[in-house]
Amino acid sequence: MAPAEIAVEVVYALPDEQVVVRLRMAPGATVGQAVQHSQLLARYPHINASAICAGVFGNVVTMDVPLNNGDRVEIYRPLTVDPKDARRRRVALRASKKSGT
């Protein structure tokens, strides 16, 4: 027998804030429906609703993917720095600290 509702979380993280919204949805609800129902788009208007990148437990998915009980929907922010550049900067910073400059 299918459950009457499924429990899901929708999460959004900023550098200084993390938000977790727990929802009860009808079975068969999609990632997009959970994002809309979470009200995070209204709370954070800088999220581009037409170009949301989201995932379930770290795996990028489309908005039409159906959710399962216990799923965690993650709304991803666009990268502001190329990961390779960020790593180079960290390595250079550590090297300068070791050399005392």
Order of helices and strands: EEHHEEEH
Strand order of the largest sheet: 2-1-5-3-4
Overall number of domains: 1
CATH class label? Alpha Beta
The rounded Rg comes to 18 Å
> Structural class from helices and strands?
alpha+beta
Portion of residues in beta strands equals 25-35%
Can you tell me the residue ranges where pLDDT is under 50 for at least 5 consecutive residues? Answer: none
Mean of residue pLDDT values? 89
CATH architectural category: Roll
The portion of residues assigned to helices is: 25-40%
| Coarse shape | elongated
How many strands in all? 5
End-to-end CA span: 67 Å
In DSSP terms (H or I, runs of 4 or more residues), the helix count works out at: 3
- Specify the CATH homologous superfamily: Phosphatidylinositol 3-kinase Catalytic Subunit, Chain A, domain 1
Characterize the biggest β-sheet: 5 strands, mixed
CATH topology: Ubiquitin-like (UB roll)
What can you tell me about this protein's structure?
- The structure is a single chain.
- This protein has 101 residues and is of the alpha+beta class.
- The protein has a single domain, classed as Ubiquitin-like (UB roll) (Roll), CATH 3.10.20.
- It is 29% helix and 30% strand.
- The protein has three helices and five strands, in the order E-E-H-H-E-E-E-H.
- It has a five-stranded mixed β-sheet with strand order 2-1-5-3-4, covered by helices on one side.
- The radius of gyration is 18 Å and the shape is elongated.
- It starts with 5 loop residues before the first strand and ends with a helix.
- 13% of the residues are buried.
- The mean pLDDT is 89.
